[in-house]
Amino acid sequence: MGDQMQFIVEKLNQEPFRKNYNLISFDSLESVQLLQLLSDVLGEIDPKHAVDIREELPEQTAKRMLSLLGILKYKPPGSVSDLSAFRQGLVTGSKPVIHPLLHWLLQRTSELKKRAYLARFLVKLEVPAEFLQDDTVADINKQYEELMEAFKNLHKEYEQLKISGLSTAEIRRDISAMEEEKDQLVKRVERLKKRVETVQNHQRMLEIARQLRLEKEREESLAQQKQEQKSQLFHAEQRLQRAQLQLKEMQDAVADSKPESLMKKLEEEINFNSYLVTEKMPRELESKKASVYLVQKVAAEPAMTQSDLTALQREINEVNAQMNQLIEKRMMKYEPTDSKFSMYRQQASIISRKKEAKAEELQAAKEEMSRLERQVQQRSSQAHELEGSEILTEDEFKQYVNKLRSKNTLYKKKRLEIAEITAECGILQRTEELLKQRHEAIQQQLQAIEEKKGISGYSYTQEELERVSAVKSEMDEMKGQTLDNMSEMVKKLNAVVAEKKASLAPVIKELRQLRQKCQELTQECDEKKMQYDSCAAGLESNRSALEQEVKGLLEECAQEESNYRYIHCMKRTLEVQLQRAKEEMKACVSPDPQERRKAIREQYTRMILEQENLGKKLREKQKVVRESHGPNMKQRKMWQDFEQLMECKRECFQKQQNQAAIGQVIQEGGKDRLVL
């Protein structure tokens, strides 16, 4: 129990509570203070419970705490029979109930915070079964359950991402690798710059290359725009074809239809709609209104207990029994002449029910048909967006199948050709392998002949020289071609530059006039700017003076506000102290001994008496110890002397035994000598 209290005090003295308790002050807390402390701890776990218990009734406080403890899955110590005692102790603020609860809460605060957060979204609201029979309530409840499952999945993904997040070490390694790549690229660019600087007119050539690159990029963008416009044109043509096809279908439908068939369809549709409006919809509306009225009536009534529910169930059973009895009496009173009417009534009710069922089926079929039409339209639009073509008709599909068959035959022919080519390729590969083997054999013979003649490596050197000369000639041809291309490019660029200069000549003339006008406007702008600067300097000086004045007034206002708040806090402190003093005086003057016992003076008086009695007992114990100290010390000295004496006797006894054993060994040795 002491370790438990010590742990509670340590946790309460830390963040975020900062209570500055010790064991004595914590143990001397009243029941109301303990309940407030428990409410603060629960408020730290769930912010909704951070309330002042003086502002709510004790029953509300107990109900609120018990509901949160149920969510946090707290199990009180003891058996099931102790639950009522636990609830009673929680209401009264009993220490044997509050202390273990605080210890349990402070041990696992972070875990309980997470559980309380999840409980806000995962504690399912229980809806009665009779309310779920309503379609709207059932749909909302289903949507609520789906959202709850989605929240569970998202929370699991969030926890997994927290666990599997990238560490800072990996990010630093990536950054260092990217910096190394950047340094390598910078060095590579510098090397390329050094290589280019050795070429003559490299600046001009770089400028020409830059212009060429810009023109190529522009050409690519124009080609892309052209492709986009082609695709847009193709889509527009497809839409036009679809619209023409729809127009043709509608025209065919109008041409084939007759006025009699159209009138018949319209009459059927009007009859069906009138049945829905006059018979079916009003009944459904009345049933919905009745159910809404019942739900509102149930919601307006106060909360019902189990006894109220049993009484209502009993009344329902009694009413059902009375209804059954009345039905039986009515059936017994029926006359034979009424049996025909009852049969007709039954047939009429059966027909009306069938009519309602068929109407509902027709309505459902229409809704399903409209849904399928929307789905077909959506799928067709998706297919058109993905493939750029519309859904094929029957004739188009036949043409597509015929085309596919022709392609299949062509595919089979090509496949046979590929098989023949593959067989021929295998023969050629085998021929190549044989030729390579013969070449290697000839090379070996040639090397042997060269070694015999003393000119080994001659053929290899000759082949290398021929290969190098061929490569050199290719490089020379490439260089010449490159120089020719560059010269042609320079000529073209010079021609383009000349054309641009000729086209820019009138623009340059206009630019000179505009430059002269710009100089005049610049002079005028400088003069205006000087006037603006002088005016702004004066306004800035006035503004700084006003800012200093406002700053001083704000500081003065803040000082006055802090003084007001300090005085207000002191006033509230004094009011609280005065209230406590009044309560103390009231408790002291009260004739009720229970109230008088709650007074602080009485409590401290009891504590002082307890401490005085404890001190008196301790002084008596000290007196007894002092009186028995001398004889006890003498007795201890005598026992020590007795212990030393016994130790000496033990050592003497051991020495005597050792000497006796040595003498026995000597005697046995003398006897052995005499025998010999």
Brief summary:
This protein has about 675 residues and is an all-alpha fold. It has 19 helices and no strands. It is about 90% helix and about 0% strand.
Summarize the biggest pleated sheet: none
Structural class: mainly alpha
Q: Mind telling me the CATH superfamily name of the domain at 1-123?
A: Intraflagellar transport protein 81, N-terminal domain
CATH topology of the domain at 1-123: Actin-binding Protein, T-fimbrin, domain 1
Q: Note the beta-strand portion.
A: under 5%
Mean pLDDT comes to 78
Order of helices and strands: HHHHHHHHHHHHHHHHHHH
CATH architecture heading of the domain at 1-123: Orthogonal Bundle
